[in-house]
Amino acid sequence: MEHPSFFLPLLLLTIIAFIAVAGQPYNNITLSSFLTTTTAGSRNLSWLSPSGNFAFGFLPLPTNSSLFLLAIWFANLPNTTTLVWTPNRERPLPPNSSVILTSDDGQLSLRDPSGTEVWSPGAPEAAYAAMLDSGDFVLAASDSSVLWNSFSDPTDTILPTQTLSAGTEIVAKLSDDDFSKGRFKLRMQADGNLVFYQIAVPTGYQYSPYWAANSLMANSRLVFNVSGSIDLISPNGSVLSTLTSATTKSSSEYYHRGTLDYDGVFRHYVYPKLTAVAGGTAGWLLMDFKPVDICQNLITTLGSGACGFNSYCSYDMKQMVTCQCPVGYSWVDPNRTYMGCKPNFTLPSCISRVPSEGFQMVRIEKLDFPNDNYDQFNVMNEVDCEQQCLDDCFCAASIYDGISNCWKKKFPFSNGRKGNYISRVTFIKVSNDNNLPSSPLTKKRTWILPDSIVLTSSIVLNFIIVSTTLIYFHVSKRKQSHQLNDNVLGPNLKAFTYKELEEATKGFSEELGRGACGTVYTGYLCPELTGTPDLAVKKLHDIHPDIDKEFTNEVKSIGQTHHKNLVRLLGYCNQDTKRLVVYEYMSKGSLASYLFSRSRPPWEQRVKIMLGIARGLRYLHEECSTQIIHCDIKPQNVLLDENFNPRVSDFGLAKLLKTDQTKTNTGIRGTKGYVAPEWFRNSMISAKVDVYSFGVIVMEILFCRRNVEKEMEEEKALLNFWVSDCYNDGRIDALVEGDEEAMADMGRVKRFLMVALWCVQEEPALRPTMGQVTQMLEGAMAIKPVPPSL
Ligand SMILES: *[C@@H]1O[C@H](CO)[C@@H](O)[C@H](O)[C@H]1NC(C)=O
Ligand SMILES: *[C@@H]1O[C@H](CO)[C@@H](O)[C@H](O)[C@H]1NC(C)=O
Ligand SMILES: *[C@@H]1O[C@H](CO)[C@@H](O)[C@H](O)[C@H]1NC(C)=O
Ligand SMILES: *[C@@H]1O[C@H](CO)[C@@H](O)[C@H](O)[C@H]1NC(C)=O
Ligand SMILES: *[C@@H]1O[C@H](CO)[C@@H](O)[C@H](O)[C@H]1NC(C)=O
Ligand SMILES: *[C@@H]1O[C@H](CO)[C@@H](O)[C@H](O)[C@H]1NC(C)=O
Ligand SMILES: *[C@@H]1O[C@H](CO)[C@@H](O)[C@H](O)[C@H]1NC(C)=O
Ligand SMILES: *[C@@H]1O[C@H](CO)[C@@H](O)[C@H](O)[C@H]1NC(C)=O
Ligand SMILES: *[C@@H]1O[C@H](CO)[C@@H](O)[C@H](O)[C@H]1NC(C)=O
To answer: Whole-angstrom distance between the N-terminal and C-terminal Cα of the chain?
Structure first.
């Protein structure tokens, strides 16, 4: 033993495994035993576990019966073969291959027909091997200590009593009948985070994570408890979080397995042993799975997303994720749908003088391809969005958000998803030769209003056209000329007249809210009809009087920001001394009212909101052409859209306020409000002021209370001090008291808490950037231990 560092882990493994072998009945597989692929599949010619539950031997591929995998499988199931482990998934072997436990050096050796070794676990000196009833195949020394076991080298499945230790991963198969390494993996990282990654096929490039459970403790592990739950366990054995919850299906009556399926979802399945033995057809029953909706969770910046290019993802939570092709498109390879869809017509080319000739647009509701737009503009209705794409020879599809945004897409589309949670509409350009249901464009032009108000009376219709035209005067212009008006349809914002906004807000009659720099009123696209509000019109006061041109420039630069976690600016008014900004209307109000209402919002919802705010701020700080520091992050300035997605509002306005405005106002809010300490020190103001305020919000979201509660006992009154004290005293439980959902997810609570504590550090340089914050919250970046106490 000249490598002591190698010796120690081996010893540990040996002790653990020794118990496993010694505690279970087993049949010795003696040296020089072997199996060959010509005997494959015959139950009596594989090596069985004592009860016959599991078999070790060769299985033919479902797609080619003359190629074989060395495998462990559930041997008792009637007409399904469920493989749990294989070492040669990338290299199935032809007939006359063999696996042998060599007599000379006690090695397990997989060999091709010529006798060349293809795989070996590299654990020599075994005295015997055994297929255990747990599903573990072990190589043991003569004193029964384990030299190697299949549980330590998993494929895509874990079984009860199995552990994924730090640094190990499981990789999904490529498709239902292709066992080679697929597009998803689940990795138990050494930093204690359990992370799902999408990976590229065949290069193996690792995309960003799409789900994670975090322990914050190095050397944590994932354990499949015999009692049926799959948990993240700390080095000292305490449960940190649960990947799939416990079932009542005992392992004496049911077979269990946890598999990362080829669609990227980790599922816990059971199979009743009784029906298995009796030859019934119950099949595997689904118990629990993660992530809850991969179609929503997985957005990649590179690659195709959860489904292949041009394909879209939908998930009903009971079956496998479904990928579909849009109308006019078909599978590149119907047997390998992950390869995506191809148009079954020739795409429009810019050689043709009339781009729209021979093509039409097909409207698909609740379908979105969120990334990779090549152009965006504001439109007033979806017909414009549709026509713009049809007239553009580069455009293969356009997407309308139902409010005012239209995005254009080139080929291929990625990250496609469809579901009721999506409010966008997609228009796909297809050839006229496809005999397809036509969309509004190809018929007579119709007016489509937000929320698809269905109108039967033509009088009402005319009325709407008139009133809509009043506000969006350019619509009529556009109809007459039938030509593009760049000013209107380009990225520019709409410049409203004061009168238009007065009408839209019914004379500024419905006040929505009041803030430091203005009052917000509800606005309607068609004020004459009582419908749902569409606009939030903010009348600014205390604006520099001599800011005229600057105002327009500033507002236009705000108009260039586009992120799903930011409230969209639709237009502005700069007339005489009147300054107004017009935003899209957010139907679920502010985070403040959501968070501090009487009943506590669901934990997952709060986590989603927290991550969304972080992404919105990261965008403002790091992804805009010019950095935007918000300066006034607080729950009142975070609004919620109809799906409770957080949207940061009021950004970019700080610069317009009178110079000392920000300071006096923030001063009022007290020393330990949302305002970073440097405001009071006259030192440099950087983006780190927003990081500070974000840290405060995270604490408020975690514990559903305001940062200052004067009524509370002194030690609890100021949230960040109380949190810091509790953290340092190891009393995190006290903070989530009464919140069962959070208590069941302490791993994440701790992680979010640590991030928050780093954010609210006095010293700006100690605070992370929003980019780092986002990654730490998502679990993609390790968090420095022990934030200094406040
Ligand atoms: C072993 O398998 C062969 C071929 O599948 C079969 O004919 C034979 O009956 C089996 N023997 C036993 C003891 O099960
Ligand atoms: C099955 O695999 C063998 C060996 O690689 C190959 O020769 C044969 O063509 C394959 N058969 C089919 C149907 O793909
Ligand atoms: C399993 O086999 C039985 C009997 O051979 C058959 O009736 C049943 O349909 C099969 N089930 C499945 C799921 O293939
Ligand atoms: C496999 O081995 C047997 C016996 O050694 C031999 O008869 C047979 O031809 C071999 N098959 C192949 C495909 O090599
Ligand atoms: C298995 O083989 C080992 C080594 O030859 C021996 O010590 C042990 O008693 C055997 N166990 C059983 C259950 O046969
Ligand atoms: C399995 O779960 C039970 C009940 O939740 C618990 O008591 C036991 O300690 C767990 N076992 C392991 C190995 O974590
Ligand atoms: C395990 O560690 C955690 C965190 O360090 C601690 O809270 C817990 O009390 C420890 N449990 C045991 C059984 O030592
Ligand atoms: C084109 O796609 C449509 C619908 O997706 C399909 O019905 C049609 O058969 C396809 N045409 C060709 C030539 O593949
Ligand atoms: C798809 O699989 C079926 C059956 O396995 C086969 O007949 C067909 O040729 C395959 N299609 C393609 C395009 O490979």
So the answer is: 50
